[in-house]
Write a structure and sequence with these properties.
single chain; alpha/beta; Molybdenum Cofactor Biosythetic Enzyme, Chain A; Molybdopterin biosynthesis moea protein, domain 2; Molybdopterin biosynthesis moeA protein, domain 3; 4 domains; 8 helices; binds adenosine monophosphate; binds magnesium ion
Length: 417
């Protein structure tokens, strides 16, 4: 159950900074979902609900990092070649039990256990084989080309922290330490609505004055990419009489109610009032562009977010407001995306007091340095600005003018979801 307290509403006239909004979310919302067991092979993208520690050393035994010859380093003559007799042979998967290098070398292959008395491996490319003797060059350090037991993770070491969204490499590490199932958070269930009398369902003909509902399919796809179970509840009409009940009904069996459209200050924007009728608002305007009207509230103890209707604004606010909220609900340790510094190829005058995101593409400048070029059309309803750009450039709340050559923060679309 989400714990969204009702006290001290921040519903004021001044738009709220993104950080303040995210901090409010952190304060008011807590982990909402239960845990469930899942096989490791099914855990990609899920959020770990437990700390997984190594039950043994990783790697479990000292082993060769290359194909070659294992030797006790003390036998090597300093500064000149050493000739030693070839002894036993150890391939990957073999046991080194009872195998010793003694005064000779052991033929060894990558991943094979080291003989107990050898700690150094010569690469096969670096030696000369002369009958049953091996000529070893000087200069190799003790311990070279040998991987030590526990050097990756020592026994008891933390391999997966609780709250980690599991990536393929996490699964590999868990498997390597012998974990084959783990406890993860249940998937969040998000109720998704579009709002607007002008919206037409996909597959229906356009009547005069209507447009197709493009937000819902985008928002649903973005949410699914982060493992959310999306419950598509269709289009809500701009009808103050029915909106409150529809939103309240959705609160019953979902972890978050998400809408787009209808949250500005226009006469036909009824979502805000509907939320206030059946719940309460926490904030409704953010200092962010595109996306200033973003409503967040609580309906029957469940969080609600009303995104702006313009597609680019919906995209940006889903990323910067809903993404941290989902992480909080799901018990995910959220690592905000980090903007990469790139050189601006444009000059742009912005208003102070709000964060602004421009759609940009990367290209090589005349000097061979990567630079961000602004998409030529600014409109926040412009879907091609999302499909034809590489990502978002972030212009800070202050700094009213960005000039050509300045460094701006860049978020690639590809790494955001
Ligand atoms: P609103 O936030 O309701 O004032 O809508 C702002 C703009 O976004 C209007 O031009 C709407 O027609 C458009 N819009 C709202 N919802 C959607 C949607 N689901 N798909 C495409 N455009 C939308
Ligand atoms: Mg509308």
């Amino acid at each position: 159950m989400a714990q969204l307290s009702n006290d001290c509403f921040a519903v004021g006239e001044a738009p709220m900074a993104i950080e303040e909004a995210v901090a409010l979310i952190e304060q008011r919302v807590s982990v909402t979902v239960e845990s469930e067991p899942v096989a490791l092979g099914q855990a990609d993208g899920r959020i770990s609900a437990e700390n997984i520690c190594a039950t043994g050393d990783l790697p479990p035994f000292n082993n060769a990092a290359v194909d070659g010859y294992a030797v006790r380093h003390a036998l090597l003559a300093p500064g000149r070649e050493t000739v030693l007799r070839l002894g036993a042979r150890l391939a990957a998967g073999a046991s080194a039990e009872g195998v010793l290098a003694g005064d000779g070398v052991v033929r060894i292959f990558t991943g094979a256990p080291m003989p107990r008395d050898a700690e150094t491996v010569f690469m096969q490319e670096d030696v000369r084989v002369e009958g049953d003797h091996i000529v070893l060059p000087p200069g190799l350090k003790a311990g070279a080309n040998c991987r030590l037991a526990g050097e990756d993770v020592p026994r008891g070491g933390l391999v997966i922290p609780e709250g980690r969204r599991l990536r393929p490499q996490d699964l590999a590490l868990a498997a390597a330490v012998g974990c084959d199932a783990l406890t993860v958070r249940r998937r969040l269930r998000v109720a998704l609505f579009s709002t607007g009398d002008e919206l037409t369902e996909l597959g229906s003909p356009l009547r005069p004055g209507t447009i197709r509902d493009s937000n819902r399919v985008m928002l649903a796809a973005l949410l699914r990419r982060i493992g959310v179970e999306v419950v598509d509840l269709g289009i809500l009409r701009d009808d103050p009489a029915t909106l409150p009940a529809r939103l309240a009904a959705a609160a019953a069996d979902h972890d978050l109610i998400l809408t787009s459209g209808g949250v500005s200050a226009g006469e036909e924007d009824h979502v805000k009032a509907a939320v206030e009728a059946v719940g309460s608002l926490v904030f409704w305007r953010l200092a962010i562009r595109p996306g200033r009207p973003v409503a967040m509230g609580l309906i029957d103890h469940k969080p609600f977010v009303g995104l702006p209707g313009n597609p680019v604004a919906a995209y940006v606010t889903l990323l910067f407001v809903v993404r941290p909220l989902l992480a909080r609900l799901a018990g995910e340790t959220f690592v905000p995306p980090m903007a990469q510094p790139v050189r601006s190829a444009f000059t742009f005058r912005k208003r102070a007091g709000r964060r602004e995101f421009l759609r940009v593409s990367l290209a090589l400048g005349a000097d061979g340095v990567i630079e961000a070029r602004k998409f030529p059309k600014d409109g926040t309803g412009m879907l091609t600005s999302l499909t034809e750009s590489d990502g978002l450039a972030e212009l800070p709340d202050g700094a009213p003018i960005v000039s050509e050559g300045d460094i701006v923060g860049f978020y690639p679309h590809a790494t955001l979801w």
